[in-house]
Amino acid sequence: NATGTGSLINTTASVQGTVERYIPNNNAWHLLSAPVSAQPIWPGFAPTPSGDPLTFGTAPWNWDFYYWNPNASETNQLYWVNLRQDETGLYNARAVDATGSEAGFGAATPNFTVGRGYLTAYNANWYVATGSPTTHLFTGDLNAGTYSVSVTNGVNSWNLVGNPFPSSIDWRAASGWTRSNLVQNGAGSGFYDMWIYNEEAGNYGICNSAPAGLTTNSVTNNIAPMQGFFVKASSSANIGMTTSVQTHSSQPWLKSGEDFDNSLRLSLNTSANNFSDEMIVAVNADYTNSGSEKFWSMYSEAPELYSIKNGVNYSIDRLPSVNENSVVALGIKAGVDAVYTFKATGVGNFFISKSIILEDLKTGITQELKDNPIYAFTAKPGDNAERFHLHFGSPYGLNEHGTQPDFTIFSYNNSVYVNNISGKDLNGSIYISDILGRKISQAGITDKATVISIEAPAGCYIVTIVTNSQTYSRKVVIH
After folding, report:
1. What is the C-alpha to C-alpha distance for residues 21 and 226, in angstroms, rounded to an integer?
2. CA-to-CA distance for 110 and 336, rounded, in angstroms?
3. Phi and psi of 408, rounded to 5°?
4. What are φ and ψ of residue 369, in 5° steps?
């Protein structure tokens, strides 16, 4: 039901079972996959068609069932292939994964393909003959062992695959994955992105397979049972997974993003609807100037937020460094004419830069996000996509905005001393980072003085003090 979850890690072949999947009849989109072999699509997941040729009858149908076709262009062809061929309700018996807009589900009674993802939506009265259930049944041999899933770098390189197991699978598992034919992203090499649709946000979230990889829109590394997810192929081959990737997880069917030092989590929402989006700007000396691509929402009214770099749109923008000359271009898509709210989190841990300035290219307004991380603005469909620029300041120096400092900061030998000279009861944190922005130590602010011993090589370090009202930074030298 809506609250029940189950998980089975089974390594024995030919074990019969029934797995239940609750899907509310609210016309919301869900990415789905089969945890058993040879599961028919109807009558459990679509009405049974009748006649010769087979037909689902006339509208309204109150249901949809699709797969993604990598052999169709995203620009002008039918990359989402419907079980219904056209508006007459005729069963789509054309060839699976055919090129262009001519793909279908094949002439025979179709089954789920193990390891492939599907897109479904159900509304009330979607199949009166079976009572239009919200609990859908997968029945057959429970999937166990090793699976190879074909992915294609075709006309488009996106592929909708699916978790084949009746348990969660870990996208960051130390072993068990074969996916070298996917596009690599993240620090170093050998790390890969996957995208899962978050119906609540109305947008896709992303997870990178690096051990400390970044995530957006509540997607995590645990992919729930019966969950479909997107990957991007660099070549046409198979991705493999063994029982080593299986895990027990309370991860909901989709979908807490993780935040790291020197990463900005940027969000966009509007009071006009309940949809939202988020992206990340992350700075790390180990990164190349790369990113994880944006995957667009299925709802035209959903707000969308992304960075623009070298003609590509990114949900995660990775940068090796920033300085006073760095600019990150941010794009938005306004689904409706409304007031929108832009919010930045992680500003207190963005040690690599003393200042983060948001520039609104439409209005000319600039705002220091470290002082005020929330910015409201109006937008409408058809606005110029490149709406904002992010500018960064030096991490060095104290009191850049002309305010009287509440602290003195100095170092002696391998210790840092922070004295509260304001006489005020200040709450906050002290962060010490190296000149590349990597956090070395952290402590809370005390009433009078705080002494922090540094176990790090001699050199220059940045002390950043974050209170509920201000941020200070000072360069110190550790001997």
Report:
1. 8
2. 39
3. -110, 145
4. -70, -25
Please confirm whether the linkage preceding 60 is cis (ω < 30° from 0): yes
DSSP per-residue codes, 206-261: EEE-STT--B-TT--SEEPTTBEEEEEBSSSEEEEE-GGGEE---PPP-------T
Backbone angles phi, psi at 348, to 5 degrees: -70, -25
The mean pLDDT of the chain is 90
Q: What is the pLDDT of residues 277-330, one digit of tens each?
A: 999 999 988 888 889 999 999 999 999 999 999 999 999 999 998 888 899 999
- 26-64 tens-digit pLDDT: 999 999 999 999 999 999 999 999 999 999 999 999 999
Length of the chain measured in residues: 479
Burial of 225 (0-12, 13-18, 19+ CB in 10 A): buried
Phi–psi pair at 130, nearest 5 degrees: -110, 10
pTM of the model: 0.82
SS3 349: helix
| Model confidence band, residue 349 (pLDDT cutoffs 50, 70, 90) | confident
Tokens of 63: 């249901």
- How far is CA 342 from its chain centroid? 18
Sort strands 312-319 and 246-247 into parallel, antiparallel or unpaired: unpaired
Within 413-457, strands assigned E span: 415-420, 428-434, 439-444, 449-453
* Tokens standing for residue 236: 């046409």
Q: Which two tokens stand for residue 307?
A: 């960075």
Dump the DSSP string for 257-304: ----TTEEEEEEEETTSS-EEEEEEEE-TT--SEEEE----S-TTS-E
User: Confidence band (pLDDT; 50, 70, 90) for 395?
Assistant: low
Tokens 């997968």 correspond to: 138
Within 8 A by CB and 6+ apart from 162, the residues are 31, 32, 33, 34, 114, 115, 116, 117, 118, 149, 226, 227, 228, 229
Residue 43: cis peptide before it, omega within 30 degrees of 0: yes
